[in-house]
Specification:
Strand order of the largest sheet: 1-2-3
Low-confidence stretches: none
Largest sheet: 3 strands, mixed
Distance between the termini: 60 Å
Number of domains: 2
Helix content: 25-40%
Shape: extended
Oligomer: single chain
Radius of gyration: 23 Å
Order of helices and strands: HEHEEHHHH
Mean pLDDT: 88
């Protein structure tokens, strides 16, 4: 949340779901300089046979202002939910009940970064007229290829340190 707050220069309207951890995170990052609301979904019971693998059924939602003056007609989590669905369908590590998970948090972060670079710079989006989101936003003037992403990664990597000379391990024969 602090990363988001640092990247913004204007006051924004922010919506989260009802997870209580967001209250402290938003307050800590934005203070009172945000129009913040929560969209709290109300869930009902599911049939007994579907409980194990199916989420509870959403039977309604409540929009509740938290800070500032959020516009109720713009209180929505639809954009982030769509982005989460896209990420889950493109990367197995976000699919439920899978063994394709990251054992190291660093590998997980790299996989997410690669996904978003591909999604925003390489993938053509029909809804944007066949251009990438980065092109539509004016960040780049061309459709990237995966080799362009590899170049960016390699340019950002620190130069490996030169290793010293090879040292033979001491064995009984050398001693």
């Amino acid at each position: 949340m602090e990363d988001v707050a640092e990247r913004l220069s204007n006051r924004v309207q922010l919506t989260t779901d009802g997870h209580s951890a967001y209250l402290q995170a938003v307050e800590g990052a934005f203070g009172a300089d945000v129009d913040y609301a929560q969209l709290v979904k109300i869930y009902g019971e599911t049939p007994e046979s579907e409980k194990r693998y199916s989420p509870a059924q959403c039977v309604g939602a409540r929009k509740q202002p938290v800070e500032g003056r959020p516009d109720k007609k713009h209180v929505s989590t639809s954009y982030v939910e769509r982005q989460n669905l896209t990420m889950r369908t493109h990367m197995r590590r976000f699919t439920r009940l899978t063994n394709a998970f990251s054992k190291k948090v660093e590998n997980h972060a790299h996989a997410v970064a690669l996904h978003f670079m591909y999604y925003n710079f390489v993938k053509q989006h029909k809804s944007l007229g066949g251009v990438s989101p980065a092109m539509a936003a004016g960040v780049t003037d061309r459709l990237w290829e995966m080799s362009d992403i590899v170049e960016v990664i390699e340019a950002a990597e620190p130069t490996p340190k030169k290793r010293g000379p090879y040292k033979k391990q001491a064995t009984q024969e050398n001693i």
